[in-house]
Amino acid sequence: NFHSTYSGAASRHLPEAEDIVNLKEVAYPVLLFDRVTMGHRGEPLARIQTATKCGYGCGFCATSRVLGPQTRAKVSEVIEFIEGMLSRGVHNFYFEDATFAIDKIGKGIFTQDKMEDGKPVLLQKYPGWTDAFLEAMNKIQKKNSQKGIRVRFGIQTRIDTLLSDEFVHELAQAGCTTVFLGVETLNRDALISMHKGTTNAESTITGVFERLSRFGVNASVALITGRYTGSISDFEYTLTRLSELNVPEIFIQAAAVYPGTDDWKNLDEDDKRNVVLSYLCPNFSASRVSVKGVNPEDQMQYGIDGPKELEAHYQTAVTILSKKFHKLN
Q1: How many Å apart are CA 212 and CA 61, to the nearest integer?
Q2: Are the C-beta atoms of 44 and 35 separated by less than 8 Å?
Q3: Is 59 exposed, middle or buried (0-12, 13-18, 19+ CB in 10 A)?
Q4: Which residues contact 299 (CB under 8 A, 6 or more apart)?
Q5: Measured at the alpha carbon of residue 46, what is the angle toward residues 40 and 52, in degrees to the nearest 5?
Q6: pLDDT for 106-131, tens place per residue?
Q7: Model confidence over 246-296: pLDDT tens digits?
Q8: Is 17 helix (H, G, I), strand (E, B) or coil?
């Protein structure tokens, strides 16, 4: 029941609760309206999801495996929504698409319609989407600049979409101020072993941080701690390097099991069912670790590492990050 994750007007856009027979057939809303929170600047921020699924198929992530067929809203629909929010005084937006701008690198958008060698085939279903969106945003910026308004937006994407100075400049020019990146760790061997969809070298990852900074775009980085990403010393090294690079936001998540992922396939049938239920219903009591997030994708599932291991990683994070950040949550 998706309604357990949403409240108010947003829930009107979600399907009614029903028994789940096949996760691949679950309908999922594309544009989520009326989800306005307060941003870092103390100003209203509208959160938008324009696309479902992901083109990378990381072994530890469920985004590419569940929640129905891949879909994407038309650029015109997104722009209409943004202009409507602007008329209501909302000038800040955050796109929760798992891989914003994936069409820029020709990798296509994820689909499960066809399988080859046991893996989904990547198809270019929405070519030119990002260019069309940025062009439309530039027109919005020009129109609103006469009123003294600068529209800002943040995105989620992957390292390999940001290897070009030209594209990062285009993002910044259109109003992008923050890019959220799932880095997980700087240990490339760990990225490979956990079947991360992008296994970039550390120099490539840090080069992206430098590029974003040069064009005035903040980097928000997500890390995974625990069994997936190596030892505590690996974790300590990643945190230290990110601090040295002045990455302004770092989110740390404990390794967990999601439906359809590598670890999920090794569970017995009862545990598989419990993981699926806790994924779709965050308040499901069988989940050992549950965090209420914005989307079902954000929900923590069965924890992999025990309390002692997690406590050690937590203390490591506090020790390193408290030297750089004045506020830790």
Answers
A1: 25
A2: no
A3: middle
A4: 5, 278, 279, 282, 290, 291, 292, 293
A5: 115
A6: 655 544 456 677 766 655 667 788 99
A7: 898 899 988 878 888 888 888 778 777 777 776 766 554 443 433 333 334
A8: coil
